[in-house]
Design brief:
This protein has 58 residues and is an alpha+beta fold. Helices cover 24% and strands 21% of the residues.
Length: 58
């Protein structure tokens, strides 16, 4: 069972706070991936995070 309501509340909080951070290419960071409808990877744990690789900084 997916927790869409829990993710939606956390997503609203993240969107309102929008912390400023800096990233570098070839860096591994944790990101809130949330709950996805299709076959994409879902975030894990209570804060829906997964490691992501920064390929290119735009």
């Amino acid at each position: 069972m997916k927790h869409f309501d829990k993710w939606n509340k956390l997503k609203k909080t993240i969107h309102q706070n929008r912390p400023e951070f800096f990233v570098n290419e070839r860096e591994v960071r944790y990101a809130h991936l949330g709950i996805n409808v299709g076959f994409e990877e879902d975030g894990k744990g209570g804060d829906f995070k997964r490691p992501v690789l920064i390929l290119k900084k735009i």
